[in-house]
């Protein structure tokens, strides 16, 4: 049972979080292995091409979902008419966008001076249809806290598509191995969830329901367009100003920290939205849960980012081989920018949960104006990849304060309180990162032994410091794990 008296059971939320984390971890682990294999078999220019293709696909996916996915999750009541209406609308939007990409592909290829973009963009755009279906399936899963099904679906789809993609890369298909790996991953994800998630679209459609949901979702749509447009602007600029291989190095540099962020912070925030939405009339409870989310995210993410910065070179040399060494500085800079994510996402999730998508939109406009300005300065005055990467860090610092501002009034969570919640983990992570870096400088051993020593040093240093400092997040996580798994009182 998920709800008692309209309140979400804490153990159910935490177990859902565990399943969501397992889903993200398993999916990302398999994807990580697949990407490593593909990176060893393919060239940086191949990855540059797929990174550019995904810019257009990711932007189009925002239109396909149109903010309805989050609106369905956030709504207090959502029935079959709501889900079916959004389903058919999403498929219609996907069809329009596919046709647009099909006919615009030649112009896009000419603009970026990459003839092979024509066919590859027309083929990879098939993903939009699967994305339309999967967005509704994910909304069902989130509302019902059935993340166990999502775990099996994601892991299965990535394993199958990764195997096929790896075989194609080994057989010499080049960039097509990446294209079909992306398509098949979405296809099998939809297919498996069709079996594991007992939801089917009905022959129902209500324009009125769509309008009602869109009254909340349109602000999220615009916000997502701004966010995706800004995030992908870096890839577009690099693809236009530099070589495809440069874009390949840039995208691979982001891969490692993105895996961590996707697993941990993404899992926490996916659970937090439906959970907080159930408490949207109780600001004190939202604040309490949000503080736990920020503290836990920071406690786990910050040391991982610090450790990754310190071990970047041996990590890349071992995992991707020396041909990918130019991606090391991009990886380190991206780790710095991702340090702010626990505060970013937790604040934005709380704003969405209380139904203030209007504030969410205003924040996105302000942040993107700042971000685009900083990016433009980096492009015009520096014209270097490193400067473009650093622009994301500067805009991220500004965004941290902007995102946190509304929650001072909405739920009474001030700047000082948020800073106090993340500062212990931040300080311990810096100390740990310095220790790991020193080990890398003084250890005169093989690259494999060096990375192992750095990892062991990082784990022991951070764990010891957390125990000595009596960090609350560590004690909280330990107690929840014991109560949820050892006692085994609850199940999803």
Describe the protein's architecture and organization.
The chain is mainly alpha-helical. The chain contains 21 helices and two strands. The longest helix has 35 residues, at 207-241. It is globular, with a radius of gyration of 22 Å.
Outline of this structure?
This protein has 492 residues and is an all-alpha fold.
Q: What portion of residues is helical?
A: over 70%
Order of neighbouring strands in the sheet with most strands? 1-2
**Which structural category fits the helices and strands?**
mainly alpha
Q: Summarize model confidence as the mean pLDDT.
A: 83
Which band does the percent of strand residues land in? under 5%
Largest sheet: 2 strands, antiparallel
Shape: globular
String of helices and strands: EEHHHHHHHHHHHHHHHHHHHHH
Count of helix runs: 21
Number of strands: 2
Rg on CA atoms, Å: 22 Å
- Alpha-carbon distance between the termini? 7 Å
* Unreliable segments of 5+ consecutive residues: 1-9, 488-492
Protein name: Lipopolysaccharide biosynthesis protein
Main location: membrane
Family: Belongs to the polysaccharide synthase family.
Pfam family, one: Polysacc_synt_3
